[in-house]
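Hey, resending since the last one bounced:
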Amino acid sequence: MGRLKFGCIGAGMMGRQHIRAIRDHYPEEAEVRAICDPEPGELASASELAPEAHRHSDYRKMLDEEELDGVFISTPNFLHAEIALRSLERGVHVFSEKPVATTKEDCLRMAEEAEEAGRVLMIGHELRYSEYFRTVKQIVDEGKIGRPYLIWCKEFRGPFLPKVDNWIQDSRRSGGALVDKNSHHFDLMNWYIGSKPARVFGMGGKGVVEVIGGEEEVIDHAVVSVEYDNRVKGCLLLCMFAPSSTEDTLEFGVLGDKGMLRTRISSHEILVWEREREEEVEYRDRAKVLKKEGNNSITYKISPLRKEWGGHYGFREEHGAFIKAIEKGEPPLTDVRECLYGTLIPIAAEESIRTGKVVEMEEWL
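The C-alpha coordinates again:
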Protein backbone atom coordinates (compact mmCIF):
# COMPACT_ATOMS: atom_id res chain seq x y z
CA MET A 1 0.00 0.00 0.00
CA GLY A 2 1.33 3.43 -0.96
CA ARG A 3 0.70 6.64 0.85
CA LEU A 4 -2.90 7.15 1.89
CA LYS A 5 -4.67 9.99 0.10
CA PHE A 6 -6.70 12.24 2.40
CA GLY A 7 -9.17 15.04 1.82
CA CYS A 8 -9.81 17.74 4.41
CA ILE A 9 -13.38 19.08 4.55
CA GLY A 10 -13.45 22.30 6.52
CA ALA A 11 -10.34 24.50 6.40
CA GLY A 12 -10.73 26.63 9.51
CA MET A 13 -8.42 26.48 12.53
CA MET A 14 -9.06 22.81 13.23
CA GLY A 15 -8.93 21.75 9.59
CA ARG A 16 -5.56 23.46 9.15
CA GLN A 17 -4.20 21.66 12.18
CA HIS A 18 -5.13 18.31 10.63
CA ILE A 19 -3.25 19.31 7.48
CA ARG A 20 -0.19 20.26 9.55
CA ALA A 21 -0.33 17.02 11.53
CA ILE A 22 -0.32 14.85 8.40
CA ARG A 23 2.30 17.00 6.66
CA ASP A 24 4.69 17.29 9.61
CA HIS A 25 4.33 13.97 11.42
CA TYR A 26 3.13 11.37 8.91
CA PRO A 27 4.61 12.35 5.51
CA GLU A 28 5.69 8.77 4.75
CA GLU A 29 2.29 7.28 5.47
CA ALA A 30 -0.14 9.82 4.02
CA GLU A 31 -0.66 12.98 2.00
CA VAL A 32 -3.32 15.67 1.83
CA ARG A 33 -4.63 15.29 -1.71
CA ALA A 34 -7.63 17.67 -1.54
CA ILE A 35 -8.96 20.53 0.60
CA CYS A 36 -12.55 21.77 0.68
CA ASP A 37 -14.15 24.88 2.18
CA PRO A 38 -16.89 27.21 0.89
CA GLU A 39 -15.07 30.26 2.33
CA PRO A 40 -12.41 31.43 -0.18
CA GLY A 41 -10.23 32.95 2.53
CA GLU A 42 -10.14 29.80 4.64
CA LEU A 43 -9.46 27.69 1.56
CA ALA A 44 -6.56 29.91 0.51
CA SER A 45 -4.98 29.83 3.98
CA ALA A 46 -5.22 26.04 4.16
CA SER A 47 -3.81 25.64 0.65
CA GLU A 48 -0.62 27.41 1.71
CA LEU A 49 0.04 24.44 4.01
CA ALA A 50 -0.44 21.91 1.20
CA PRO A 51 0.15 23.72 -2.10
CA GLU A 52 -0.18 20.58 -4.22
CA ALA A 53 -3.61 19.68 -2.83
CA HIS A 54 -6.60 20.19 -5.11
CA ARG A 55 -8.99 22.92 -4.00
CA HIS A 56 -12.77 22.50 -3.77
CA SER A 57 -15.63 24.64 -2.52
CA ASP A 58 -18.21 21.82 -2.49
CA TYR A 59 -17.50 18.60 -0.60
CA ARG A 60 -19.86 16.63 -2.85
CA LYS A 61 -17.85 17.54 -5.91
CA MET A 62 -14.64 16.69 -4.09
CA LEU A 63 -15.92 13.22 -3.16
CA ASP A 64 -17.10 12.63 -6.72
CA GLU A 65 -13.90 13.78 -8.44
CA GLU A 66 -11.10 12.73 -6.10
CA GLU A 67 -9.83 9.21 -5.42
CA LEU A 68 -9.47 9.39 -1.65
CA ASP A 69 -8.80 6.83 1.05
CA GLY A 70 -10.12 8.99 3.85
CA VAL A 71 -11.42 12.40 4.84
CA PHE A 72 -11.08 14.66 7.87
CA ILE A 73 -14.31 16.49 8.71
CA SER A 74 -13.75 19.77 10.58
CA THR A 75 -16.97 21.60 9.81
CA PRO A 76 -19.64 23.13 12.08
CA ASN A 77 -21.22 20.38 14.14
CA PHE A 78 -24.58 20.26 12.38
CA LEU A 79 -22.84 19.20 9.14
CA HIS A 80 -20.92 16.23 10.60
CA ALA A 81 -23.61 13.62 9.93
CA GLU A 82 -24.45 14.79 6.41
CA ILE A 83 -20.84 14.80 5.25
CA ALA A 84 -19.85 11.60 7.05
CA LEU A 85 -22.77 9.67 5.60
CA ARG A 86 -22.02 10.93 2.07
CA SER A 87 -18.37 9.94 2.49
CA LEU A 88 -19.25 6.45 3.72
CA GLU A 89 -21.55 6.00 0.72
CA ARG A 90 -18.54 6.71 -1.49
CA GLY A 91 -16.54 4.01 0.32
CA VAL A 92 -14.26 6.53 2.03
CA HIS A 93 -12.92 6.15 5.58
CA VAL A 94 -13.94 9.02 7.87
CA PHE A 95 -12.31 10.96 10.68
CA SER A 96 -14.94 13.33 12.08
CA GLU A 97 -14.37 15.91 14.76
CA LYS A 98 -16.43 15.67 17.91
CA PRO A 99 -19.31 15.71 18.61
CA VAL A 100 -20.54 12.73 16.62
CA ALA A 101 -23.60 14.77 15.55
CA THR A 102 -26.12 17.21 17.03
CA THR A 103 -29.13 14.88 17.30
CA LYS A 104 -29.54 11.38 18.70
CA GLU A 105 -31.06 10.22 15.40
CA ASP A 106 -28.00 11.29 13.41
CA CYS A 107 -25.63 9.75 15.98
CA LEU A 108 -27.33 6.36 15.76
CA ARG A 109 -27.55 6.50 11.97
CA MET A 110 -23.84 7.27 11.64
CA ALA A 111 -22.91 4.25 13.74
CA GLU A 112 -25.23 2.00 11.72
CA GLU A 113 -24.03 3.27 8.34
CA ALA A 114 -20.36 2.92 9.27
CA GLU A 115 -20.87 -0.71 10.24
CA GLU A 116 -22.84 -1.43 7.07
CA ALA A 117 -20.24 0.28 4.87
CA GLY A 118 -17.35 -1.59 6.50
CA ARG A 119 -15.36 1.62 6.76
CA VAL A 120 -13.61 3.36 9.64
CA LEU A 121 -15.62 6.15 11.25
CA MET A 122 -13.34 7.60 13.89
CA ILE A 123 -14.31 10.45 16.23
CA GLY A 124 -11.79 13.11 17.19
CA HIS A 125 -11.60 12.40 20.92
CA GLU A 126 -7.86 12.93 21.01
CA LEU A 127 -7.58 12.92 24.81
CA ARG A 128 -7.85 9.12 24.83
CA TYR A 129 -4.54 8.99 22.91
CA SER A 130 -2.55 11.13 25.36
CA GLU A 131 -0.24 9.45 27.85
CA TYR A 132 -1.75 11.47 30.68
CA PHE A 133 -5.37 10.40 30.29
CA ARG A 134 -4.37 6.84 29.38
CA THR A 135 -2.55 6.68 32.73
CA VAL A 136 -5.74 7.71 34.53
CA LYS A 137 -7.51 4.83 32.78
CA GLN A 138 -4.74 2.43 33.77
CA ILE A 139 -4.90 3.45 37.44
CA VAL A 140 -8.65 2.87 37.55
CA ASP A 141 -8.45 -0.43 35.67
CA GLU A 142 -5.71 -1.75 37.96
CA GLY A 143 -7.94 -1.23 40.97
CA LYS A 144 -5.72 1.29 42.72
CA ILE A 145 -8.80 3.05 44.10
CA GLY A 146 -10.97 -0.06 44.25
CA ARG A 147 -14.48 -0.19 42.84
CA PRO A 148 -15.48 3.25 41.51
CA TYR A 149 -18.60 4.80 42.98
CA LEU A 150 -18.33 8.45 41.92
CA ILE A 151 -16.73 10.20 38.95
CA TRP A 152 -16.68 13.91 38.22
CA CYS A 153 -15.42 16.52 35.82
CA LYS A 154 -15.21 20.25 36.46
CA GLU A 155 -14.51 22.75 33.71
CA PHE A 156 -14.46 26.40 34.73
CA ARG A 157 -13.27 28.45 31.75
CA GLY A 158 -13.95 31.52 29.62
CA PRO A 159 -16.33 31.85 26.66
CA PHE A 160 -16.00 30.07 23.32
CA LEU A 161 -13.53 31.44 20.79
CA PRO A 162 -15.22 33.19 17.84
CA LYS A 163 -16.25 31.02 14.89
CA VAL A 164 -17.42 31.88 11.38
CA ASP A 165 -20.92 33.35 11.61
CA ASN A 166 -20.93 32.54 15.35
CA TRP A 167 -22.27 29.07 14.61
CA ILE A 168 -20.90 27.72 17.89
CA GLN A 169 -23.16 30.10 19.85
CA ASP A 170 -26.31 28.80 18.14
CA SER A 171 -27.55 25.59 19.78
CA ARG A 172 -29.34 24.60 16.57
CA ARG A 173 -26.00 24.43 14.74
CA SER A 174 -23.62 23.43 17.54
CA GLY A 175 -25.95 21.12 19.47
CA GLY A 176 -25.44 23.27 22.57
CA ALA A 177 -22.51 24.10 24.84
CA LEU A 178 -22.51 20.70 26.54
CA VAL A 179 -22.57 18.86 23.21
CA ASP A 180 -19.79 20.89 21.63
CA LYS A 181 -17.51 21.37 24.61
CA ASN A 182 -18.13 18.53 27.01
CA SER A 183 -18.54 15.57 24.67
CA HIS A 184 -14.76 15.21 25.21
CA HIS A 185 -15.22 14.93 28.95
CA PHE A 186 -18.26 12.66 28.97
CA ASP A 187 -16.34 10.38 26.61
CA LEU A 188 -13.48 10.11 29.11
CA MET A 189 -15.89 9.53 32.01
CA ASN A 190 -17.59 6.72 30.07
CA TRP A 191 -14.21 5.21 29.16
CA TYR A 192 -12.98 5.22 32.75
CA ILE A 193 -16.18 3.74 34.16
CA GLY A 194 -16.72 1.20 31.38
CA SER A 195 -20.50 1.31 31.52
CA LYS A 196 -23.44 2.82 29.64
CA PRO A 197 -25.52 5.64 31.13
CA ALA A 198 -28.91 4.65 32.54
CA ARG A 199 -30.30 8.13 33.23
CA VAL A 200 -29.25 11.75 32.78
CA PHE A 201 -30.41 14.95 34.47
CA GLY A 202 -29.22 18.45 33.68
CA MET A 203 -29.65 21.92 35.15
CA GLY A 204 -28.26 24.99 33.46
CA GLY A 205 -28.90 28.33 31.88
CA LYS A 206 -27.54 31.51 30.37
CA GLY A 207 -26.61 34.17 32.88
CA VAL A 208 -23.51 36.13 31.89
CA VAL A 209 -22.22 35.48 28.37
CA GLU A 210 -24.26 36.92 25.50
CA VAL A 211 -23.04 36.91 21.91
CA ILE A 212 -25.97 36.36 19.53
CA GLY A 213 -28.86 36.70 21.98
CA GLY A 214 -32.19 34.93 21.78
CA GLU A 215 -33.52 31.62 23.04
CA GLU A 216 -31.22 29.55 20.80
CA GLU A 217 -27.99 30.94 22.24
CA VAL A 218 -26.01 28.28 24.10
CA ILE A 219 -26.03 28.12 27.88
CA ASP A 220 -23.03 29.37 29.86
CA HIS A 221 -23.27 27.23 33.02
CA ALA A 222 -24.59 23.77 33.86
CA VAL A 223 -24.57 20.83 36.25
CA VAL A 224 -25.17 17.37 34.79
CA SER A 225 -25.77 14.18 36.77
CA VAL A 226 -25.39 10.73 35.22
CA GLU A 227 -26.19 7.34 36.71
CA TYR A 228 -24.57 4.41 34.92
CA ASP A 229 -25.83 0.87 34.47
CA ASN A 230 -23.18 -0.34 36.94
CA ARG A 231 -24.57 2.13 39.55
CA VAL A 232 -21.64 4.54 39.38
CA LYS A 233 -22.75 8.15 39.74
CA GLY A 234 -21.19 10.89 37.62
CA CYS A 235 -21.31 14.67 37.72
CA LEU A 236 -20.08 17.36 35.34
CA LEU A 237 -19.91 21.06 36.19
CA LEU A 238 -19.44 23.64 33.44
CA CYS A 239 -18.95 27.39 33.70
CA MET A 240 -18.15 29.52 30.64
CA PHE A 241 -17.52 32.78 32.51
CA ALA A 242 -15.00 31.72 35.15
CA PRO A 243 -12.18 34.15 36.02
CA SER A 244 -8.65 33.56 34.81
CA SER A 245 -6.46 31.96 37.44
CA THR A 246 -3.41 29.81 37.91
CA GLU A 247 -5.56 26.82 38.85
CA ASP A 248 -6.52 24.11 36.39
CA THR A 249 -9.58 25.02 34.33
CA LEU A 250 -10.25 21.29 33.88
CA GLU A 251 -10.27 18.60 36.57
CA PHE A 252 -11.33 14.96 36.69
CA GLY A 253 -11.76 12.78 39.74
CA VAL A 254 -12.79 9.21 40.57
CA LEU A 255 -13.73 8.03 44.07
CA GLY A 256 -13.71 4.32 44.87
CA ASP A 257 -14.12 2.13 47.93
CA LYS A 258 -10.34 1.94 48.37
CA GLY A 259 -9.27 5.44 47.45
CA MET A 260 -9.58 8.50 45.25
CA LEU A 261 -7.93 9.81 42.09
CA ARG A 262 -7.73 13.47 41.09
CA THR A 263 -6.03 15.13 38.13
CA ARG A 264 -3.68 18.09 38.31
CA ILE A 265 -3.19 18.66 34.62
CA SER A 266 -1.19 21.90 34.79
CA SER A 267 1.65 20.15 36.63
CA HIS A 268 1.33 16.84 34.70
CA GLU A 269 0.36 15.03 37.90
CA ILE A 270 -2.27 12.50 38.92
CA LEU A 271 -2.92 12.39 42.66
CA VAL A 272 -4.02 9.08 44.18
CA TRP A 273 -5.08 8.67 47.79
CA GLU A 274 -5.50 5.17 49.19
CA ARG A 275 -8.00 4.77 51.99
CA GLU A 276 -6.56 4.25 55.44
CA ARG A 277 -6.17 0.51 55.86
CA GLU A 278 -7.15 -1.21 59.09
CA GLU A 279 -5.99 -4.68 60.08
CA GLU A 280 -7.48 -6.65 62.92
CA VAL A 281 -4.71 -7.51 65.39
CA GLU A 282 -6.43 -9.13 68.36
CA TYR A 283 -9.49 -9.17 70.60
CA ARG A 284 -9.42 -7.50 74.01
CA ASP A 285 -12.52 -7.80 76.12
CA ARG A 286 -14.60 -8.47 73.05
CA ALA A 287 -13.37 -5.23 71.43
CA LYS A 288 -11.49 -5.19 68.16
CA VAL A 289 -8.06 -3.64 68.27
CA LEU A 290 -7.19 -2.26 64.85
CA LYS A 291 -3.84 -1.46 63.45
CA LYS A 292 -4.02 1.65 61.30
CA GLU A 293 -1.36 1.90 58.64
CA GLY A 294 -2.04 5.57 57.92
CA ASN A 295 -3.05 7.47 54.81
CA ASN A 296 -1.16 6.64 51.68
CA SER A 297 -0.93 9.36 49.04
CA ILE A 298 0.77 8.69 45.72
CA THR A 299 1.60 11.20 43.01
CA TYR A 300 2.02 9.99 39.44
CA LYS A 301 4.24 12.42 37.58
CA ILE A 302 3.67 12.15 33.84
CA SER A 303 6.33 13.38 31.46
CA PRO A 304 5.48 16.89 30.20
CA LEU A 305 2.60 16.67 27.79
CA ARG A 306 3.22 17.48 24.17
CA LYS A 307 2.04 21.00 23.48
CA GLU A 308 -0.18 20.47 20.50
CA TRP A 309 -2.49 23.11 19.05
CA GLY A 310 -4.74 24.63 21.69
CA GLY A 311 -3.32 22.32 24.35
CA HIS A 312 -5.14 19.38 22.73
CA TYR A 313 -3.06 16.54 24.13
CA GLY A 314 -3.15 13.42 22.00
CA PHE A 315 -3.89 15.42 18.84
CA ARG A 316 -0.79 14.24 16.99
CA GLU A 317 -1.27 10.62 18.00
CA GLU A 318 -4.88 10.38 16.84
CA HIS A 319 -3.76 10.87 13.24
CA GLY A 320 -1.46 7.88 13.52
CA ALA A 321 -4.35 5.89 14.98
CA PHE A 322 -6.56 6.78 12.00
CA ILE A 323 -3.86 5.72 9.56
CA LYS A 324 -3.31 2.44 11.43
CA ALA A 325 -7.03 1.68 11.55
CA ILE A 326 -7.30 2.05 7.78
CA GLU A 327 -4.19 -0.01 7.08
CA LYS A 328 -5.02 -2.79 9.55
CA GLY A 329 -8.76 -2.82 8.98
CA GLU A 330 -9.35 -2.63 12.73
CA PRO A 331 -11.59 -0.25 14.70
CA PRO A 332 -9.64 2.54 16.42
CA LEU A 333 -9.89 3.33 20.12
CA THR A 334 -12.28 6.17 19.28
CA ASP A 335 -14.48 4.29 16.81
CA VAL A 336 -17.93 5.87 16.54
CA ARG A 337 -19.58 2.93 18.32
CA GLU A 338 -17.13 3.23 21.20
CA CYS A 339 -17.66 7.00 21.52
CA LEU A 340 -21.39 7.22 20.84
CA TYR A 341 -22.44 7.96 24.42
CA GLY A 342 -19.89 10.74 24.76
CA THR A 343 -22.25 12.70 22.51
CA LEU A 344 -25.59 11.13 23.48
CA ILE A 345 -25.17 12.08 27.17
CA PRO A 346 -24.79 15.83 26.53
CA ILE A 347 -27.63 15.75 23.95
CA ALA A 348 -29.80 14.16 26.65
CA ALA A 349 -28.56 16.69 29.22
CA GLU A 350 -29.46 19.64 26.96
CA GLU A 351 -32.96 18.15 26.56
CA SER A 352 -33.22 17.65 30.33
CA ILE A 353 -32.32 21.30 30.92
CA ARG A 354 -35.07 22.40 28.51
CA THR A 355 -37.76 20.11 29.96
CA GLY A 356 -36.73 19.87 33.61
CA LYS A 357 -37.10 16.10 33.44
CA VAL A 358 -34.78 13.14 33.97
CA VAL A 359 -33.93 11.38 30.70
CA GLU A 360 -34.21 7.60 31.00
CA MET A 361 -31.73 6.55 28.34
CA GLU A 362 -33.24 3.18 27.36
CA GLU A 363 -36.66 4.75 26.75
CA TRP A 364 -35.15 7.85 25.10
CA LEU A 365 -33.15 5.84 22.59
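The radius of gyration is 22 Å.

Sorry for the duplicate.
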